[in-house]
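Hey, sorry to bother you again with one of my protein questions. A protein chain has come my way and I'm curious about its shape. It would help a lot if you went through both lines with me. I owe you a coffee for this, so here goes:
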Amino acid sequence: MWSVDSCKSIIDCWGQKTIYSPNLERIDSKLLSGIAVDFKADYERYYPNQSRNLDEIKYFPGLLATFFYRISRFLFLSDDEEQAREFSSVGFALSSMEIYFSSSIKSGLKINHGLGTIIGARVEIGKNALIHHNVTFGDKNGRRPKIGDEVTVYPGAIIIGDVNIGDRSIIGANTTVLKSVPSGSRVSGIFK
């Protein structure tokens, strides 16, 4: 497991590159143990079968955004929304990806390239999702999508509203999804 001190030094270094002020005192062994299982699976999607090195996070903006999401999510669930917002904002500033701390993302998330990707508030994403750049998961009429396990979403896809994407589905590039998709589907174009 990564040490509290190594996490703090990495966050302090990256945090200084933004206008945000994450409180490093909120990084403790309780927080790290809370995110360890999910982030370990996220990390291993980028670095399979390698020892964990926190410095490697900086080479993949998607992994960097996920790291800050995991911290902000844990803080949000611990009723510290102010610091959740700060850590989430650092992740956004460093990666150009918006991952809301109120979204629920299971372990094994991998974001390829990721620039411009938005995972909106209260979106749910299952295990081992693969998401590419410029993807939007968002609100329509107050409802958000639920993405199943092992779903792949290619660049430019838009999935909004009360939509369920079944496990192991593939959403093609530049696809707009406005209705639910059964497990194992391959969807492209406008799906409504």
Observations:
- The first strand starts at residue 98 and ends at 99.
